[in-house]
Amino acid sequence: MRFVMRFAFVLALAATTTLGCKKTEPAAPAPGAAPAAGTYRFAFVTNNSSDFWNIAEKGVRKAEKDLGIKAQVFRPLKTEVSEQQRFIEDILVQGFDGMAICAINPDAMTPLLDRVAGKMPVVVHDSDAPKSQRKAFVGTNNVEAGRLAGQAAIAALKQAGITKGKVGMFVGRIDMQNSIDRKQGIDETLGKQPGIEILPIFLDGADRTKAKKNVEDALARYPDLVMVIGLWSYNGPAMVDAVRNSTRAKKPMVVAFDEEEETLKAVEDGTIFATIVQKPFEFGYQSMKALKDVKDGKTIPTTIDTGISTIKKDNLATFWAELREMKK
């Protein structure tokens, strides 16, 4: 009898415990109401750690606030494909919802980019990978940017009364699409000027020390060097340092790209004739917006042109004020 009573007690206790632990199912959404959406998490990958990307990251952070997304910025220390590949492998396993990348070597990286595109939308910014399955390119028309640089170089030489001589071009890599396109634009303009010879391009692998040494070597080797043009952002300060420290009586004219602080100071003091500026803030912002639009099922254009401008001493003050406000 005692055993029967004890057994009945255990059964009653078990029933009570089971009822107390029963899960409550969430209420179904009302007819026609959209289910609550999660927050998208996107990756933004640069091609190096240049100060240029500080502005792009500001655009990414603004997009986080405006669009209700989360983003992580990956910045390789050097412009090496292997660094980007490591980042991409991490992105693939960390559950991101989309990736925006400045592809260092578009042809070599296309198979990997396509593998990512099979799992999440991919947007390419700054330097395109047109053969990949990316959804869009966000950035500058770099052929046109090269033409603007070439036109600025022609104007600088004309102002100085120079009709012949050699031109040196300096860049980190020439296998990136932005480098290829900018060189094309310069060749189409400055390269067609009678008496002007464009030297084989000087490569520095995004190493600022080597970038400066390349300019110093060109200054020493070519007494008739009349123009130096830097295609990437850090090339501006590197050219300025080398030209200022040169003992040559007649120093070459300088045309640069982008808006590093030292570059703009050199435009102000006349060392740089002009710099061709992009809109890196928009690289960050528009890349994030494009990824969100794709995830939301919207159609986006395959090219999102963020625009370019030529900055000289006469329009520097306005541009610099806008840039400083943007950086806040």
Written account of the structure:
The chain is built from 11 helices and 13 strands. With 328 residues, the protein is α/β, with parallel strands linked by helices. It has 2 domains: 41-139 and 280-307, Rossmann fold; 142-277, Response regulator (Rossmann fold). The strands form 2 sheets. Strands 6, 7, 8, 9, 10, 11 and 13 form a 7-stranded mixed β-sheet that branches. The chain has a 6-stranded parallel β-sheet with strand order 2-1-3-4-5-12. Helix 2 runs parallel beside helix 10 (280-295). The longest helix has 19 residues, at 2-20. The protein is elongated. The protein starts with a helix and ends with a helix. Residues 1-36 have low confidence and may be disordered.
Give the key terms:
328 residues, alpha/beta, Rossmann fold, 2 domains, elongated, disordered N terminus
Question: What can be said about this structure in brief?
Answer:
This protein is an alpha/beta fold. Helices cover 47% and strands 17% of the residues.
SSE topology sketch:
Blueprint: H1 2-20, E1 41-45, H2 52-67, E2 70-74, H3 81-93, E3 98-101, H4 106-117, E4 122-125, E5 136-139, H5 142-160, E6 165-171, H6 177-189, E7 196-198, E8 202-203, H7 208-221, E9 225-230, H8 235-245, E10 253-257, H9 261-269, E11 274-277, H10 280-295, E12 303-305, E13 309-311, H11 316-327
Parallel strand pairs: 1-2, 1-3, 3-4, 4-5, 5-12, 6-7, 6-8, 6-9, 9-10, 10-11
Antiparallel strand pairs: 11-13
Please name the CATH topology of the largest domain.
Answer: Rossmann fold
End-to-end distance: 82 Å
Could you say what the CATH architecture of the largest domain is? Answer: 3-Layer(aba) Sandwich
- Percent in helix: 40-55%
Estimated radius of gyration = 27 Å
CATH class category name of the largest domain: Alpha Beta
Major sheet details: 7 strands, mixed
- Say how many strands there are: 13
How many helices does DSSP assign? 11
Q: Which regions contain 5 or more consecutive residues with pLDDT less than 50?
A: 1-36
- Overall, the morphology is elongated
